[in-house]
Amino acid sequence: MGSGKFWRRRLRSLTSCLFLGAIAVVQTASAQPAADGVARLEAFLDGVQSLTADFKQELWSAEQKPLQTDSGSLSLKRPNRFRWNYEDPTQLTIVADGAQLWIYDVELAQVTVTPFDDTVGTSPAMLLSGDRAVREDYDVVDAYPLDGLDWVKLEPKRSSDFSAVSIGFSGAEPRRLELVDGLGQVTRIELDNLVLNPEISDDVFELAVPAGVDVVGDEG
Description:
Elements: H1 3-22, H2 32-47, E1 50-60, E2 66-77, E3 81-88, E4 92-97, E5 100-105, E6 110-115, H3 116-122, E7 138-146, E8 149-156, E9 162-170, E10 173-181, E11 186-196, E12 214-217
Parallel strand pairs: 6-12
Antiparallel strand pairs: 1-2, 1-11, 2-3, 3-4, 4-5, 5-6, 7-8, 8-9, 9-10, 10-11
């Protein structure tokens, strides 16, 4: 498989984890717009323990040329559980069960397993753990209205795969995300059919590995 295709797949996995890490961020700031952003983020965090949605994800170059479009669905349940299913044009499933992170590449017939703590600890782009002080790694730097949404902008305090993360809210619901990487590429995610606080069984956050699929890593 070509290196470009490999890294595009890796970007999808990084992006999903960053989204789920970003919505766990609460960081105080001195400027009023940033303070407003913190308040909006806290209001969302205080009321949401689970979430389901469909998503459309677009990757754009620094010159604003479209590079890739993906779509699928996601489920989130705190603490430390999520399932991110990429369904079109290729199939990729990313599952965190609270202890491990599973990435199932259907085309390659391969599952990669990584200890959850190790994964989220190696890069700000992989932060998700509910018992980690995420607020130590990101600043809320701005809040502003745009395109009918109320946006909150976050920046990492340390070196990261992404230089900025912006979340667009409609009321208390996150509807869009924009992630800017070190090359100036922008990943835009739009959420649809979003449901807050649905009942989700823990079984959703388990990956049943199909017969014949290689498993790389420690299954525990």
